[in-house]
Amino acid sequence: MDIRIDRKEMLDRFLSYCRIDTKSDEESTTRPSSLKQLDLLRKLETELSEIGASEVSFDERGYVYATIPENLPEDHPRRGKVPAIGFVAHVDTSPAVTGKNVSPIVHDNYQGEDIVLPNDKTQVVSPKETPELADCIGHSIVTTDGTTLLGADNKAGLAEIMTLGCTLLRQPEILHGPVKIGFTSDEEIGKGADCFDIQKFGAEAAYTIDGSTVGEIEDETFCADSATVTIRGRNVHPGYAKGKMINSMKLTAEFIEKFPKDRLSPETTEGREGYIHPHRLVSEEETSVLHVILRDFEESGLVEQQGLLRKWATEIEESHPGSKIDIEIKHYYRNMKPRLNESPQIVDLALEAVAKSGLEAKKNVIRGGTDGAVLTAMGLPTPNIFTGAHNFHSKREWVSVNNMEKTVETLVHLTGLWMEKGKPGKR
Ligand SMILES: [Zn+2]
To answer: Is 187 one of the catalytic residues?
Structure first.
């Protein structure tokens, strides 16, 4: 099958999305967290209508939904039988780096050199940092000017899904079942799926297009909890404190000292290893509040980590009579893998689509969470597919336009595979 992808149009769309500031805001209490995200969602709504998508709808809380209807002929044996699948990407960019005045630069026919970014020459995009760049000889590479992030996370995904829509609508000879499109906001602050309307979306399974290296399908995320540890001492006038004062700051230092130094920390783990990570502390003599995140691929790992926190708390309470340590655990998200295992075709067809696009298919785990992890928990199984972009949340973020085309090609094949053999499954 000849898949015709309008590469220039895809690149123009991508660059136009990058230029719109859509940084999300962790401190905000509004939905979406920054109203500027709606600017890009409005633009996407208009573009979806322009390309001829159906059921285009806008939700003020920060979502756009659309459908590319099934196009099987009347007499096709699979007509009306193909499960709807969805593709999801987020409009917001990370609050960690500025997203204002993004000026993307296109480097055509890349030849393997270090790319020094013109407006901050200390920022260098190099195959030494991301070896994947060495595989992009001859490609068009998009970078920033060195002063902002690019926002390829996840605007590459938006452009790829829009281009998938264009390709399917312009080439009716590519047969497919119902294809659902969902654009979200506030993914970077962990709230992308909060108000996502699964019922209205109406897909059997979905894919976030929010990964990185070409060929990679991610079907596992961490299980994640957070702990708030409140450490209470006793404050007395320091001049008259002998035998009375219990300094919460010193108890806290002792508590933090107990975290393992050679394992279970972000700086000593990789792959499938979990960690327990203190990341914020507010401390005074009387009371200290320590914020800790707990991460593991297995729920049992989180239980062990909670056990460690409780054990350390008891040890300190016993060695400092009068002190009191409370631990409050909050449930965050869970690994999507057990649910995806119940419907293996979702990941299997994605891997097959990657191979059909001439790429080496690889499964990977995400040492973090995605909208997909939350959607999966809400009942819509949603693994993650590569975008071709790298160095997320950095001024050295880059994407290969050629690899973006590979993503679109993979998505076209994936819709074809669902049409041929996708089975309705449990939702
Ligand atoms: Zn992302």
So the answer is: yes
* Gap from CA of 240 to ligand 1 centroid (Å): 55
**Catalytic annotation, pick one of 187, 188, 204, 220:** 187
Same structural domain for residues 50 and 132? yes
Amino acid at position 348, single letter: D
Domain boundary among 285, 305, 333: 333
> Nearest 5°: phi and psi at 363?
-95, 145
- Euclidean distance between CA atoms 382 and 373, whole angstroms: 7
Q: How far is CA 321 from CA 234, 284, 314, in A?
A: 11, 19, 11
Residues 164 and 252 in one domain: no
Whether residues 363 and 289 share a domain: the answer is no
**How many Å apart are CA 33 and CA 24, to the nearest integer?**
6
Residue 382, domain extent: 7-221+335-421
Count Cβ atoms below 10 Å from residue 413 Cβ, excluding itself: 21
In a domain, 25, yes or no: yes
> Is pTM beyond 0.85 here?
yes
pLDDT tens readout for residues 361-414: 999 999 988 889 999 999 999 999 999 999 999 999 999 999 999 999 999 999
Pairing of strands 105-107, 141-143: antiparallel
**Which is catalytic among the residues 21, 45, 70, 92?**
92
Identify whether residues 277 and 409 lie together within a single domain.
no
**Alpha carbon of 388 to ligand 1 centroid (Å):** 12
Over residues 329-348, the pLDDT tens digits come to 999 889 999 999 999 999 99
What is the Å distance from ligand 1's center to 87 Cα?
Answer: 14
CA of 136 to the centre of ligand 1 (A): 22
CA of 187 to the centre of ligand 1 (A): 7
Q: Which of these three, 333, 355, 381, is where a domain ends?
A: 333
What number is the average pLDDT over the span 20-43?
96
Supply 115's token pair. 């790319």
362 with 294, same domain: the answer is no
Rounded CA separation 232/8 (Å) = 61
Q: Which residues surround ligand 1, an ion (CB under 5 A)?
A: 153-154, 210
Q: Let me know whether 255 and 180 are in one domain.
A: no
